[in-house]
Amino acid sequence: MNEMRNDLLHTVDRIFEEQCERPVREAAEAGDWPAALWQALEAVGLTRATLPEAAGGSGMEFGDAMLALRRSAYHAAPVPLAETMLAGRMLAAAGLAVPSGALSVAPARTGDQLSLVQHGSGTSVQGAAQRVPWGNLCAHVVVVGNLDGRGMVGLVSTSGSVRSVEKNLAGEPRAQLAFDRSPLLACAALENAPARLEAEGALYRSVQMAGALERTLELSLQYANERVQFGRPIAKFQAIQHMLAQLAGQVAAAGAAADAAIEASAVAPDEFAIAVAKSRAGEAAGKGAEIAHQVHGAMGYTREHSLHYLTRRLWSWRDEFGNETYWQSRIGRVVAAQGADALWPMLTRL
Amino acid sequence: MHEFRFDPVQMPAGTEALRGSVRALIAKEVARGAITPSRNSWSTFDPEFSRKCGAHGYIGMRWPKQYGGQERSALERYVVTEEMLAGGAPVGAHWIADRQSGQQILRYGSERAKKSILPKIVAGTCYFSIGMSEPDSGSDLAAVRTRATKVDGGWNISGTKVWTSSAHRTHYLIALARTAPKAEDRHAGMTQFIVDLSQPGVSVRPIHNLYGGHDFNEVVFDGHFVADDMVMGEPGMGWKLVTSELAFERSGPDRFLSTYQFLLESIRAIGPEPDARSASEIGRFVAHLATLRRMSTSIAGMLERGAQPVVEAALVKDIGTALEREMPETFRHLLPTEPTLGAGTSYAELLGMTILSAPGFTLRGGTREILRGMIARGLGLR
Questions:
Q1: B58 Cβ contact partners less than 8 Å away, ≥ 6 residues apart
Q2: What is the count of residue pairs from A and B with beta carbons less than 8 Å apart?
Q3: Interval B107-121 mean pLDDT
Q4: Are residues A187 and A200 in the same domain?
Q5: Which positions in chain A touch B26 (Cβ < 8 Å)?
Q6: Are A170 and A214 in a shared domain?
Q7: How far off is chain B from A229, nearest CA to CA, in Å?
Q8: Do both A36 and A176 map to the same domain?
Q9: Could you tell me the CATH number of the domain that includes residue A113?
Q10: Structural domains of chain B, with CATH
Q11: How deeply is A69 buried, as exposed, middle or buried, from its count of CB atoms within 10 A (0-12, 13-18, 19+)?
């Protein structure tokens, strides 16, 4: 790891350690906006980390931005950092200005569609978007759709559009937004914008799962070393050791798959690499969380321990922006259609 | 705690050309009917194909030129290896010699051993078996009872090795033997020897495996003489050496590509328009393979940097072999087939062969349980 990346890691970890303690997480889950944490992230440019300098970004490499995102998940930070990074990169890719503040994206749920309507003076958006992450707490969301067969990216105010708010398992808000010919504040064409949003969303969730899994392993190792039963730490039992070895395998695989997708997506999302990452990290999330809870016993089943901040996120993120079956099937259909002989060239291209 | 890091690698220039030349060799052999990929695995023994690999410079690629090698990188070797496996090439004859025995001789062998053996391995004409397991020493390798006694000019070896793949058709094996009585340190007092299987005092008896094939053997040494310059390293170094040999044995793509041909045949059998479940399962296997390949190339990068990725190799082998074992279990649901005993190319026979081979995937080269113990040690739990 190079020196710059190390510095970044220190900065990011320090912010989360100082600003993301338990009360902040609890307040966020109760519906409060974690203003101090968000300001700290803005102050060092992390919320604009995926933007080119020309678009007001900090000139950070995409891989560094994703490292920061991964650490935010490691610390279970209750902020729409992924969504803001994603919305910003969509706007920048379409050549649009990126407003300040937290941003989200719509449609976020696989299968949802919004209609874009052109009229005299501009373009508006029509339709409902379910489970828009943090949609109730962001002043603007980036919307994607098709207009005359062309992919479009637009920016819309959420004012007056929030119909209801649910929570994912981690207590992060997921809002239903209903747009009734809401005017786009800006819009521009971007090839395959809806597919691009979906893929990039899946990439960010994969990166977040990789980060949360790392912490899940660390907490599990710590607990197994501390918890004494039958006169010794449970880490000394072979059954526990083998469970933790399997957890380490899931964590390493999720991280490797996410890394590969990040590298392939520096310029634009690489659908195959992302499909691999979301499938693999999603599977690791479920299997990893299962092992971590088994190791933690009843203690991990409480809200008193910190494990739930990670595992509730893993159980949420694996189903957002397409679950494993969704992305696996995309891969499987392509592989079957192209035939067995095309598989190896496809694998070695990555 | 050991940090499990699988950093990306930069493939050296010319890698794609190398990849292309391996693919061309395999395609040519398939076209002329010399090999049938769907029936092959990395234990398929085919001396003719091994000689071709030798002629193309695909064996001992990293070794010094003075012993016939090419002084190429671990990553280039990785590429050749994975192309052979993905292409279903019958690489079994030279596989062990290339993967581990030759590497060991290069590091720890005498000059005579290097000069007399390595060039023949490189040429694809000299094959090795592994002489580790014994009737009472499997996962607990330090329990070996094969004994070597010092005599004038060398050592006399007596004892029994088992599960010795291909010993009836290879030229040598590297035997781990006890050369000093068991001490408090049970890893002390062991030595590795290069054993010439054509010399007197060795007998080889077949042990038929689960699918009825003859691959395994029992190898009995009865006062078999080994010259001093066929000792690996110094007497007593055996445990250290065998540990490094196992790292070579575990670190490659053969630990997740054993069922790759079966995957391809299953994809063919399912056809271009899979139902929802088949599409998802195929996609899952592909996602796993892509990830394992990424991790495995990273290990090749560590080897290239001179690191000893023992724990990383154990981790990749554990999850890679688990995937290999899942494949027949999944596809038998997707393509309802009554598996059939036989070595033919029908899907029923390939499925049958894969089911009967599968238990070995998580046993050979270190059981899943041994690997998980190593990973746990890496995690600081032991």
A1: B22, B80, B84
A2: 160
A3: 98
A4: no
A5: none
A6: no
A7: 15
A8: yes
A9: 2.40.110.10
A10: 15-126 (1.10.540.10), 130-236 (2.40.110.10), 251-378 (1.20.140.10)
A11: buried
Residue A58 pLDDT exceeds 90: no
Interchain contact B343–A (C-beta under 8 A): no
Neighbours of A172 (CB within 10 A): 22
pLDDT in tens, B139-195: 999 999 999 999 999 999 999 999 999 999 999 999 999 999 988 899 999 999 999
Q: Are A71 and A158 in a shared domain?
A: yes
* Domain membership of residue A257 as a residue range: 194-349
Helices (H) and strands (E) in chain B, counts: 12, 8
Q: What are the chain A neighbours of B331 within 8 Å (beta carbons)?
A: none
pLDDT of B2-31, one tens digit each?
Answer: 678 899 999 999 999 999 999 999 999 999
Q: Name the one residue in this structure whose structure tokens are 């030759």.
A: B102
Q: What is the DSSP string of B255-282?
A: GT-TTHHHHHHHHHHH-SS--HHHHHHH
Using DSSP's 3-state secondary structure scheme, residue A306 falls into coil
Report the greatest alpha carbon distance in chain B.
Answer: 70
**Domain tally for chain A?**
2
B288 DSSP 8-state letter: H
Q: List pLDDT tens digits, range A233-291.
A: 999 999 999 999 999 999 999 999 999 999 999 999 999 999 999 999 999 999 999 99
User: What is the residue type of A73?
Assistant: A
List the single best residue of A328, A341, A349 to mutate versus B (max B Cβ within 10 A).
A328
Amino acid, single-letter form, for residue A37: L
Q: Are residues A291 and A277 in the same domain?
A: yes
Give the global pTM: 0.97
Q: How far is CA B318 from CA A235, B311, B328, B361, B365, in A?
A: 20, 11, 17, 10, 11
